[in-house]
Design goal:
The chain has 9 helices and 8 strands. It is an alpha+beta fold. It has 2 domains: 211 residues, Cation efflux protein transmembrane domain (Alpha-lytic protease prodomain-like); 119 residues, Cation efflux protein, cytoplasmic domain (Alpha-Beta Plaits, 2-Layer Sandwich). The protein has a 6-stranded mixed beta sheet. Strands 1-5 form a two-stranded antiparallel ribbon. Strand 6 and strand 7 form a beta hairpin. The longest helix is centred in the middle third of the chain and has 30 residues.
């Protein structure tokens, strides 16, 4: 039976398993932060409190940074099936996380600069008022961190893998056999005249990191850190008259935040640039699954296309070549592989200098 082009087409929706839930969490934190920001700015203006007003504007920077995460979730969901995105919009969260990390680093530099200015030009500190502001800010950050932490890092342990099998075979020695496997959590109700299977197999559970949510979480934790350091410095400053301790703690906090920011930049840029070393365990599992009975991998590429989703191109040289679907079935148990392309070349067709 002839296979139509339409029947061979498939979607590339590689959003994280908790995409929508995480998006709601970020919107809740933005609402909480923005509300507190308005209260502090208005209250500071009415009561003439510079500390209250300054903290309100400080919270606005974190609310703005988290808005990047929220809008990334929204755009990724709306454009998930847009064919312009070759591998979907799953990596948009990493792009947002990268941007947020840069914003976080800039905030840390601003804190460090302000602290240095305060060291050079000390100002009078209203300790009681400043401690109250820091405590209120810390309380808001603790609530926000609680909202975000549940989805910050969890295991992705679906017990099954749903896939479409698309096989094209050529007997000519100069061609490769291709097997395309596409897996996601969207099911198609129409029938396919080509092989179509649903495999229910145990899939190893691993931590799935949503870098978009992670960036929002780090913003909240960074703000909480500055509040804790400020409270400690203000209490000691009030008790012993160590006014210089406040800006010193600001510098310490800035250094810690810059380190967190750099860590987030490294992780997200690795995903954006398709760095393979971060997913070395997948390459090892793929080799373990298919390199048997004279089959050897000649070229392997594995990269992340979304939280918990990876694509792979597997080129095989085989002494006894099988149908590409055979190798695809071997890889089906690796639940993190959501889009797989397999190429098979008989070993006799490979030039000696390339073998």
């Amino acid at each position: 039976m002839a296979i139509s082009v339409d029947a061979m087409q498939h979607e590339h929706v590689f959003l994280g398993a908790d995409h929508d839930r995480n998006a709601r969490k970020v919107w809740w934190v933005i609402a909480l932060t923005a509300s507190m920001m308005v209260v502090e700015i208005v209250g500071g203006s009415i009561f003439g409190s510079m500390a209250l007003t300054a903290d309100g504007w400080h919270m606005s920077t974190h609310a703005g940074a988290m808005l990047i995460s929220a809008l990334a979730y929204l755009y990724a969901r709306r454009q998930a099936r847009n064919p312009r995105f070759a591998f979907g919009t799953g990596k948009l969260g990493d792009l947002a996380g990268f941007a947020s990390a840069i914003v976080l680093a800039l905030i840390a530099l601003a804190i460090a600069w302000e602290s240095l200015v305060r060291l050079a030009n000390p100002v009078t500190i209203n300790f009681n008022e400043a401690i109250l502001v820091a405590v209120v800010g810390l309380a808001v950050n603790i609530v926000s961190a609680f909202l975000l932490h549940d989805g910050h890092s969890h295991t992705h342990g679906h017990g099954h893998n749903h896939g479409h099998s698309h096989n094209r075979s050529h007997s000519h020695a100069g061609h490769h056999d291709h097997a395309h496997e596409h897996t996601d959590h969207d099911h198609h109700g129409h029938d396919h005249p080509h092989p179509h299977s649903h495999a229910h197999e145990a899939v190893p559970t691993r931590a799935v990191q949503d870098n978009n949510l992670r960036s929002a979480y780090i913003h909240v934790i960074a703000d909480a850190l500055t509040s804790v350091l400020a409270i400690a410095a203000l209490i000691l400053g009030k008790a012993y008259g160590w006014s210089a301790l406040d800006p010193v703690m600001g510098i310490v906090g800035a250094i810690v935040i810059v380190r967190w920011s750099w860590s987030l930049i490294r992780v997200t840029s690795g995903v954006l640039l398709d760095v393979q070393s971060q997913e070395g365990h997948l390459a090892g599992e793929i080799r373990e699954q298919v390199e048997t009975d004279g089959d050897r991998i000649s070229d392997l590429h594995v990269w992340q296309v979304g939280p918990g989703h990876h694509a792979a191109i597997v080129a095989l040289v085989s002494e006894n070549p099988r149908d590409p679907g055979y190798y695809k079935e071997k890889l089906r148990a690796i639940g993190e592989l959501s889009h797989v392309t397999v190429e098979v070349t008989p070993s006799g067709a490979v030039p000696q200098h390339a073998a």
